[in-house]
Every structure is written in structure tokens, then in C-alpha cells.
Amino acid sequence: MTVDDTGSGADDADGRVDPPPLSPSFPRADADPEAADTGEDPLALRLEQLILGAERRYTPFQAARSAGVSMELASRFWRAMGFADIGQARALTEADVLALRRLAGLVEAGLLSEAMAVQVARSTGQTTARLAEWQIDSFLEGLTEPPEPGMTRTEVTYPIVELLLPELEEFLVYVWRRQLAASAGRVVQVADDEEMVDRRLAVGFADLVGFTRLTRRMEEEELGELVEAFETTAADLVAARGGRLIKTLGDEVLYAADDAGTAADIALRLVETMENDETMPELRVGMAFGTVTTRMGDVFGTTVNLASRLTSIAPRDAVLVDSAFAEELIRTGDSPASEAAAAEAAAAAEKEGEEPPTYRFALQPTWQRPVRGLGVVEPWLLARRDGGGR
């Protein structure tokens, strides 16, 4: 859907006859008056109507007026959702009007400020746009190969979409509710209101080594399969170990965790998993711990920048962390300050007849070095400690 905030002389939609129910069978490519008027493929238009559940009925001005929203605010909402301008073409449906009413209603009821409502529209639009692109590119593409010569992809796509649409819609709502519950649970556990936005988190970047060289040697399809395998493996490991995948950038993934021990375990498991896969390039990981600003599911701030810089200087198949991350592991008892400190703690425990402390990780300081834009830092090399488990 696309919009424009200019013009107000469009015909009123009042009195138009509601479209008849869509046939459950695939529509023939008969002449469609609306498609003829717009020059669009009639089959593509029927597919749009199937997905949206209604025919085009309103211009942007008519939709805004029917929703009781100013054209200016309607345009802000639509653009935030990622829809481009279309002038005053008749391209909107009852669902578009209802969406405007809901957003405006939240503002009128005082539940959301206007700025927050626009932010809700933008975050939802950006997230679902990526999901929709993936579903079409990677999902439907594999299911819509014409089974018989002479059949178009659209002729095959329509009945498949008709069957899958309600199931995918229900699944999307289920996953969203699950994620919302998990996120809400994390928020209510935060004692300080300011910490809900600026939180102390462990942030990690995992980067495939030599990916640029690979793009020159590998075929596009082969390269796409490698990236998908990497992203899938990383996403599964991050989720399984209690982290949160923030985003994927082809050859790099960004994740976060509430505590340094969880993030460290994820980083080492990523390296170990890639090492055991001969089809995968080497991996390097950089991590930092500190205050992070969260916005629309993304993370920002000096801590994130530092983790990114550490990734660029990390050795192959290794994990590099900043001093704050190392201090947090030591504070929580996940790592000794040094092997000498571990030996002293073990001796003291033995003298008292107690079990010696067990540590999951080992830290090795490396040379201090300047990091672009962040001054001089002291990275630490992270590894599993003998007996720390895998």
C-alpha cells in the first residue's frame, strides 16, 4: 500500500457496493476493469485481494476521512509503516481505514503519544517487511515452481497462498505473543525505570572471516546457502542459550544477553560449532559489557561500538572481550582473575576442608591497543577453562 498527503478532490466512496466474497478456487485471468484502469496484471491484483481480504475501495484522502484522521497524520502513519506515496489512486481497503482508526484511537485515549504511535507503526512495518520479503523469496519461491508447462507462477501461487495464509497468520500471532511475554517479563524485573531504556547488557558480534574473498569465489546461490546456514546456526545457538538475536548482517550477527556468562557461553559455542563444520569459514567474536540504549529492538551506544571494534581485531576462531566484560565474569565467579588467583582460592578451600571453586571461563589479558574512536583499550582473550564444560 502507498500513500500521498496532497489533494482532497477525490470522489467519495459512500454508496459503493461491497465486493462479493472471494471464490475459494483460483481466479481466471479474465479481464478485470480495475486492472485495466491501472495497467496492472489482473492475476497480481487478484492475489493482492486474496491476501488483503478485500478489494481496493478508497483513495488515501477518503481513507483518512473515513477513519476520522487528518491527512497529515494518516500520511505519517503510512510512511512509518513503509508505504510509498501513490497520489490519490484508489488503492486502499477497509483494513487500511481500521488500522488508522486503531492507531488514532490509542492516541485519543491517551494510551500512546502521537510520536509513540508513529514509532509503533515504524517498528511493526520494518519488522514485518523483512519477514514478508523472506517468506516470498525463500519460502514461496520453492513451493511455486510450475508443475506443468504453460502454467505461470502466479497461477500456482494463488491456491498455495489461499491455503497457507490463515495458518501463517495464526502462527505469526502466536510467536509475537510469546516474544511479547518474554520481553514484558524482562522489563518488569528491572527495578530502575531509567534502566528499561539504558540497560547494562553484554553485547556480542560474531563475524565470518574472509567473507569478502568468498563472495568473489562462490556462486551466488552457494553464497546464499552459506549465509543462511550461518544465520540459522547463530540464531538457534543464541536462542537456546538464553540470548537475544538483535540482527543479522549477512556475514555478521549481533546478539545481546542480560549477563556476561550467558554471552560468553554463546560466543564460545558459536566458535566451536563453526570449527566443527568444514563448510564454514573461520569465525571471530568481539564482546563488551556496559550500558546499552535500546530502540525499536536494536541496541546502540559505546558498548555496542566497542564490541564491533573488538570483533575486527579478534584472532581467527577466538573471542575477544573488553575489560568491563572481564571484570563482570570475575565478579560473578564465572572466571578467576588469573590462574594464580584460582590456585590461591583452591588452596584456601582445601585448607578449610571445602570444595574448591569451579570456573567456567579463563581470561588472558592481551596488549593494550588504540581502537578507532574509543581510545586505548585492554582486550582479554576468552576461553573455556579446563573442567568448565561445553
Quick structural gist:
The chain is α+β, with helices and mostly antiparallel strands.
Describe the structure in your own words:
The longest helix has 36 residues. 25% of the residues are buried. Strands 1, 2, 3, 4, 5, 6, 7 and 10 form an 8-stranded mixed β-sheet that branches. The chain has a two-stranded antiparallel sheet with strand order 8-9. The protein is an alpha+beta fold and 390 residues long. The two termini are 49 Å apart. Strand 4 and strand 5 form a beta hairpin. The radius of gyration is 27 Å and the shape is elongated.
Features:
two-stranded antiparallel ribbon; 390 residues; 13 helices; alpha+beta
Report the C-alpha radius of gyration, rounded.
27 Å
The number of helical runs is 13
Helix content: 40-55%
Shape: elongated
Terminal CA distance reads 49 Å
The largest sheet is: 8 strands, mixed
Number of beta-strand segments: 10
Question: What's the mean pLDDT score?
Answer: 82
State the order of secondary-structure elements, H for helix, E for strand. HHHHHHHEHHEEHEEHEHHEEEE
Which spans of ≥5 residues are poorly predicted at pLDDT below 50? 4-31
Which secondary-structure class do the elements indicate?
A: alpha+beta
Instruction: Tell me the strand percentage band.
Output: 5-15%
